[in-house]
Structures are given as C-alpha cells and as structure tokens.
Design brief:
By secondary structure, this protein is α/β, with parallel strands linked by helices. Helices cover 36% and strands 17% of the residues. It is built from nine helices and 14 strands. It starts with 10 loop residues before the first helix and ends in a 5-residue tail after the last strand.
Length: 291
C-alpha cells in the first residue's frame, strides 16, 4: 500500500535539520530568537507580504487574527463547513459565531451567492478556506467584503504557495493563517503556524498578542495568549523551505499524471478558478459510487 503521506525528510534534509537543531540547543535561545526572525522573513518573502508572525499552530493563527481585528463575542463570521473542524474552533474560541455558507460544486470553495443570503448586521468577517490548497476567488471575495465592510481572514492552512491571478494566497486579506503541522506541504517536526499580513500596525499587535499581550515584561495591555513558534521549529522550517519549490513542482507533476490517467473514467477532480494555481495539498476526487 502507498502511504498517504510521509513526514520523514530525505537523508540530506534530515542531516541539515539535525545540524540546525544542534545549533539551537547550543545557543540556549529557544523562544523568540534569531531562527524565528529569519524564518518569518523567509516565509513573508515566499508569500509576497510585508509581515509574517510565527505562532504555535494554524488554529491560533486564525483565532489571533480575529482577535487582533476586534472580532469577538456576538459577532458572526462567514465561512464553510467543508473544511477542517479547526476553522470553526478558531472562530468559536474568540466567542464569535460561524455562519456556514455553501461551496461551489466544482471548486468546493466558498459560494458568494449563498454568502449574500446570510449577511446581517452581526457579520463582521469572512473566512474563506483554500481547501486542499485550491485558491478561492479572492478578487470576488475582496469585492464582496468591501461591499459589506467585512474583514477578510484567509484560512490558508493547506495552501502554502498557492496563487490566484499571479499573487500568492495569504496576501489578499487583512490577515491569513497557515499551519506547519507535519503533514502539511511545508511541515515542521511538531506543531507550528504563522500569520501573514500587509498591515504593519496589525502585525505589531499580533506580535504582542502571541506573547501574552504584553508590551513589556509583565505589563499585559491586551488579552493575549501563549502562542509562539519555537526556535527548533523555525530552524527546521528554514531548512525545509529551501527545497519547497522543487517539492511543489513534483506534487504538480504527480497530480497531472493522475488527471491524465483517469480522464476517461467517472472520477471528478477538484476544479480551479481561471488564473489560479493550487498548492495540491491533497488530491481529492468525487465518484458516483464512493464506497
């Protein structure tokens, strides 16, 4: 049987990771150090944004984004149920209410026609999910959000390097959350996440919130949480990001082989919007007789 995924690195990458971890151990700096600062810069460059803020996991990336934007108790957030449960968990964790919208039958991404039906005065944000790494129509979503004065938080936890109209997902909304869980395309050797944004003031607030909301030692101005991407994970991800482009190209080639080999069968693949490029996190299909 072919395994769904292998979380172990190749021999060369594994050796490089061990070398970097050894440096972290010897440094005595394990939290909010130079490795995190370096990786945040590397990831921001990959996505094409001004700021990236490392946090403990993808769920925190989404919940802290909501918190920093002031979305909380009693507010509603438009999203989809066709996603990981942690999308909803992030919303509920902030005291907000997830409002589930339908998905497009072809792309399986959020359907703005159904979103329009569910708008009311309590809706403060929309959280589109780039499911399986397939980009949502971010141009249409941003227009919809502008019309209804909503914040946009992208759930890009499965969409590292995916793009829409030549622009990487994670660069469209007020903020976006990514996960570095080991099974992700870019995964660590433990939990991890990151928030991307082009809003410098929002980034500054997020850096405070991830560190307990303190502006200086023991001076907690905001209701923050303990959510930091540690130095070992940052060092590991800095190694893995070097070969990420080649890895993504290989995933795309493999998916194309599946599409070509199964084109004359009842298998239906997830479709993409024109001008978009999936991260190909998973190859999920539809068939008339699933079992």
């Amino acid at each position: 049987m072919i395994p769904l995924i292998s979380v172990t690195a190749d021999r060369k990458t594994s050796a490089q990771i061990k070398k970097e971890i050894s440096k972290v151990i010897d440094s005595g700096s394990y939290i909010l150090g130079k490795n995190l600062e370096r990786f945040e810069g590397e990831f921001a460059k990959l996505i094409g944004v001004k700021e990236a803020i490392g946090v403990a996991n993808g769920t925190d990336a989404l919940s802290l984004s909501l918190r920093a934007l002031g979305v909380g108790p009693g507010d509603k957030v438009l999203t989809v149920s066709f996603t990981s449960p942690f999308t909803s968990i992030a919303i509920v964790e902030e005291g907000a209410i997830p409002v589930y919208c339908d998905v497009d039958p072809n792309t399986w991404n959020i359907d703005l026609v159904d979103c329009e039906k569910k708008i009311d005065k309590q809706v403060k944000a929309i959280m589109p999910v780039h499911i399986y790494g397939n980009p949502c129509d971010m141009k249409a979503i941003n227009s919809f959000a502008k019309k209804h004065k909503l914040f946009v938080i992208e759930d890009a936890c499965q969409a590292h390097s995916a793009s829409f109209g030549g622009r990487r997902v994670g660069a469209f909304g007020n903020a976006a959350g990514f996960s570095f869980y080991p099974t992700k395309n870019l995964g660590g050797i433990g939990d991890g996440g990151i928030i991307t944004t082009n809003d410098l003031s929002l980034a500054k607030k997020l850096r405070l919130l991830r560190h307990g909301g303190q502006t200086k030692r023991f001076w907690h101005v905001y209701k923050g949480k303990n959510s930091r991407l540690d130095e070992i994970q940052a060092a590991t991800l800095s190694v893995k990001i070097r070969g990420f482009k080649n890895q993504q190209n290989n995933r795309a080639k493999i998916l194309q082989r599946y599409r070509q080999g199964l084109k004359n069968t009842p298998v239906v693949f997830q479709q993409q919007y024109p001008g978009s490029k999936s991260a190909n996190h998973l190859c999920v299909i539809r068939v008339p007789k699933r079992d």
